[in-house]
Design a protein that fits this description.
two-stranded antiparallel sheet, 36% helix, alpha+beta, 190 residues, 5-stranded antiparallel beta sheet, 8 helices, elongated
Length: 190
Amino acid sequence: STFEYAMIGICLTGIDGSFLMVNPALTQMLGYSTSEMKKLTFEELTHPDDIRISHQKVKRMMDHPGESVQFEKRYRKKDGDYIWASVGSFLLRDDQANPEYFITHIENITDRKLAESQLIANEVKFRTFFEQVADYVMILEPRESGLYIVDMNEAAHKIHGYTRAEMLNQSLDLLDETGVTADDERINMI
């Protein structure tokens, strides 16, 4: 029941990489029928760039009995698209410690990976704007003892004459010492 009704993909994979058993969640995730998957190997469904890490993890389990692995890789769906998956695998051995088959859990994390990629892209856009804008930009953090500088752009350095390292984590009171205040026409505070 656990195998059949699990919400994530589960498979038993032979030492040769063939699929011995696959649960409905995995067939639905990848778009193959059970009989189609049993004719394939995990390598055939692995993104070419991720085959090396898959082999490294298999070798790790072969060389270290009782150890499981956790990693991320991409799987090819029947329609040709790829999904990102979090993979957890364990090598089951017989009574003489001979390898029998891998028990693998596969969770689709494509949405999370896309969100991470978008977050990185947005950070690059923000950082580019932040560094290249001609206006004075400073990021402040409220703390119990006042406002503190957590980042600033090049224009702020030019106005104050301090390096970024000298200004980071300093109280906003530092600005008063430079003669630049919130009333300065070169500064717009938000």
